Amino acid sequence: MDAVAVGTSRNRAARHHRCGRSSPPQIRASVHNAFVHGKSSNRRSAPYWLYLLECEGGVYYAGIALDVEQRFLQHACGLGARFTRARPPMRVLAAREFPSKGDALRAELQLKALPRSRKLAFFEGAERA
């Protein structure tokens, strides 16, 4: 796929498609794969999720949310963080469930302190635990 600068009409058209009522299949598959391979628990209260996105230019973005798919779509539509407005997300790389917002925020700080080369391993290590 050709690289497209942010703000070009082709990029706007792609963003428009991503912001429609239903998620394109590749987005649903990306979110599904992150959940299938992420750590889950059987808690009754709504869990928070730590997620890792791959954005345009190959850069990573980490955040927390109650619903990763909804948050991904917000980022893709330009309604998320300033970082993802400048570099729209392409896919969810990984997601991990936490029992509370505080736990998710602490994990996000740990993840952001890691070098890029160890960020995916952070999620893979959770699967073995």
Automatic annotation (TrEMBL):
InterPro entries: GIY-YIG_endonuc, GIY-YIG_endonuc_sf, UPF0213_domain
Provenance organism: Ramlibacter henchirensis
Name the record gives this protein: GIY-YIG domain-containing protein
Chain segments carrying region Disordered: 1-24
Domain GIY-YIG residues, every copy: 46-121
Gene3D superfamilies, sorted: GIY-YIG endonuclease (3.40.1440.10)
Family in the record: Belongs to the UPF0213 family.
